[in-house]
Amino acid sequence: MPHPTIHIKRIYEVPVATDGFRILVDRLWPRGLTKAAAAVDEWAKAVAPSTELRQWYGHEPEKWEVFQKRYLAELKQNEAIDAFVETHEDKKQLTLLYAAKDEAHTHAIVLQHYLEERYRKR
């Protein structure tokens, strides 16, 4: 069975039709953005890093390697992931939206790879 193509994108970028189903994967709503401007189809707070992990990380690039391992461990224990995978398996295109300025060190990258792996194994 085909699985969705998963992209990531900063939520502050202009929404486009090719985004497909747009999912905010941050635990907090992005500053200064209205719900209409965000054009979010779903807000999946439950798949975001825990508050404790997010606060520990603080978007400090020197903590990136450890953050990835800790977030991956959280994802493997997160009961919301199974429901997320099932809910979206029939979609063609998913765009995971995040607010962080540092595009190279965002949890959305870890989540994208984790979800792609889960869909491949189905």
The span between the termini is: 8 Å
Order of helices and strands: EEHEHHHEH
Tell me the radius of gyration. Answer: 14 Å
> Quaternary status of these chains?
single chain
**How much beta, percentage-wise?**
5-15%
Rounded mean pLDDT score:
96
The class by helix and strand makeup works out as alpha/beta
Which stretches are poorly predicted, pLDDT < 50 over at least 5 residues? none
β-strand number = 4
Instruction: Report the sheet with the most strands, covering strand number, pairing sense and barrel closure.
Output: 4 strands, parallel
* Share of helical residues: 25-40%
Biggest sheet, spatial arrangement of strands: 1-4-2-3
Coarse shape: globular
Please, could you describe this protein's structure?
The chain has one domain (5-120). It has 5 helices and 4 strands, in the order ββαβαααβα. The chain has helices at residues 35-38, 51-57, 64-77, 80-88, 107-120, and strands spanning 5-10, 21-24, 42-43, 93-98. A 4-stranded parallel β-sheet has the order 1-4-2-3, covered by helices on one side. α1 (35-38) links the parallel β2 and β3 (42-43). α3 packs across α5 (107-120). The longest helix has 14 residues, at 64-77.
